[in-house]
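Section 3.1: Structural characterization of target chains.
Under the original work plan, the team committed to producing a structural model for every single-chain target entering the pipeline before any wet-lab resources were allocated. The record below documents one such target. The sequence was received from the expression subgroup and is listed exactly as submitted; it comprises 71 residues.
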Amino acid sequence: MTTPSDVPIRDEPIRVGQFLKLANLAEDGGHARELLESGLVTVNGEPEYRRGAQLRRGDVVAVDGRSVRPV
């Protein structure tokens, strides 16, 4: 697995749906929902299906082979 890219966030925690957009992994909220509902998003190696799940700095989010983390 490659080293995740760091994505700066202002406030912690941040919702997964918001973070997917911020990290340019989703085009908009609808796209983020589709990715999550399809099981294409993992957080710390575990599948995540909830847009409102809370992320903290250092969590690793992966979509389609690309991993990022909030810092």
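The CA atoms of residues 14 and 56 lie 7 Å apart.
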